[in-house]
Write a structure and sequence with these properties.
By secondary structure, this protein is an alpha/beta fold. It has 2 domains: 2-78, no CATH class; 114-407, no CATH class. It is built from 16 helices and 13 strands. The protein has helices spanning 2-10, 12-34, 36-50, 57-74, 79-92, 124-139, 172-185, 194-198, 204-207, 217-235, 261-266, 268-271, 304-308, 312-315, 355-362, 381-388; strands spanning 97-100, 104-108, 114-115, 144-148, 190-192, 249-258, 274-281, 287-293, 296-302, 333-338, 346-351, 368-372, 392-397. An 8-stranded mixed beta sheet has the order 5-4-13-11-12-10-8-9, with helices on both faces. The chain has a 3-stranded antiparallel beta sheet with strand order 1-2-3. It has a two-stranded antiparallel sheet with strand order 6-7. The longest helix is centred in the first third of the chain and has 23 residues, at 12-34. The chain is globular.
Length: 413
């Protein structure tokens, strides 16, 4: 008995540590229960985004487990305070590589920006799915264009490799190079935006947010002008010349107002905080905008600011608000009807999140723009396009969008 008492006495420190640990875990669990609605919403969003419609049963189970893990991690009680403490410790040690449970690692570039490195992907399946899409569209007399958007790290020819820590390789541009080359070899029409974009004269910090993987609104605005010029030259889209010049727009900068998705993962202390510039036309506009989320369409009418912009993303004082979504973001299906357009052109954009500001800006020069997101859209894309009958279908993806759900066009449904 005396030996047992002595053993317990000798392990008092360990017992206290274990007790404190259990209290912290229990407290975080109780805190998460109070945040159960947000955790549930996060689970649903993650599952719908990552698991393709009609996926095999085992894949759905794996997707549900992964989505649940992500939701619990994101909904942890006082999570952001723990992140800030961790970020402070990494900053004090001048670390450029941050361990992240979702991305594996996040990196601070030579420009002070937070990013992840794209993994090497097998793009042949994406190419095959795109060929099938194009051939089916051509059979229905619908023209097609693939637009290759950039990713946050430029190609090596523009110094991208030098931005990352030593021995870290970003494969996003290599994947895009292979994909575009394969489409060109098959005579699929493409516009690789990357060269024009990176040679624009704007700096890395102007083109992309420091704390988010998306391009800045200024970067998206630049891209829209380049795309408009290409569409006019190659498809007679009749977008007014000079429309996308700065003189036609108001630029409102909200200083130190935005922490993007990458910044939220490393904390404000480590990643900093971005300015956010809202770009709006200074000429008369008149719109009808519809977005479809689930089976419930919503309609908005009025000017660009009234119908296109979702201003709650700007007026919310919380800097972690997704301000990037102010340009009517990430819905299953979007319709923009420009009642003052100087042409009667219609385009359909199959999009990722980089397309978000672009389709809103592009709608200023075209009668009607529709956008669908294949992560959420579960209809046959060709049947939808045939019913809509646009002048052009544009597949518009950034250089890190080669995951399978992006190329499931539901052609067999």
């Amino acid at each position: 008995m005396s030996k047992i008492k002595k053993m317990l006495k000798n392990h008092t420190k360990e017992k206290i540590t274990a007790l404190v640990f259990l209290v912290i875990i229990f407290g975080m669990f109780i805190g998460m229960m109070f945040n159960f609605t947000a955790v549930g919403a996060s689970f649903i969003t993650s599952y719908r985004t990552d698991v393709p419609t009609g996926a095999p049963y085992l894949e759905r189970i794996k997707g549900a487990i992964s989505a649940a893990e992500n939701a619990v991690n994101e909904g942890a009680f006082q999570r952001q305070k723990y992140i800030e403490l961790y970020g402070l410790s990494q900053l004090m040690m001048n670390k450029k590589v941050i361990t992240d449970y979702n991305y594996g690692s996040l990196y601070k570039t030579t420009y002070g920006q937070i990013t992840f490195a794209g993994i090497e992907r097998y793009v042949d399946d994406s190419c095959g799915a795109t060929y099938d899409l194009v051939n089916n569209l051509i059979a229905n007399d619908i023209d097609f264009l693939y637009i290759q958007l950039p990713f946050k790290i430029p190609p090596a020819r523009y110094g991208g490799d030098a931005q990352l820590p030593a021995n870290v390789k970003d494969y996003a541009n290599d994947n895009a190079d292979k994909f575009v080359a394969s489409l060109n070899q098959a005579s699929v029409k493409t516009y690789d935006l990357r060269d024009d974009f990176w040679q624009s004269g704007m700096t890395q910090n102007e083109l992309f947010f420091n704390t988010d993987h998306h391009w800045s609104i200024q970067g998206a605005f630049l891209a829209t002008g380049l795309i408009a010029n290409y569409l006019n030259e190659n498809y007679d889209m009749q977008i007014p010349e000079g429309l996308y010049t700065e003189e036609n727009f108001n630029f409102e900068t909200y200083e130190n107002s935005y922490i993007g998705s990458m910044g939220r993962r490393v904390g404000r202390i480590y990643g900093g905080i971005d300015d956010f510039t809202l770009i709006k036309p200074n000429f008369d506009t008149d719109y009808t905008v519809r977005h479809i989320e689930g089976n419930e369409p919503q309609e908005f009418k009025g000017s660009f600011e009234e119908a296109v912009l979702e201003t709650d993303y700007i007026t919310d004082p919380d800097p972690t608000t997704n301000r990037y979504a102010v340009y009517h973001g990430d819905y299953r299906e979007l319709h923009f009807i420009n009642h003052l357009a100087q042409n009667d052109k219609k385009i359909l954009i199959i999009k990722d999140s980089f397309s978000l500001p672009v389709y809103s800006f592009l709608s200023l020069g075209i009668k009607e723009v529709r956008a669908i997101d294949m992560r959420l859209f579960d209809e046959n894309a060709v049947e939808y396009a045939t019913a809509y009958n646009p002048d052009l279908v544009i597949l518009m993806y950034n250089a890190d969008s080669f995951a399978p759900p992006m190329f499931d066009f539901h052609l067999s449904e």
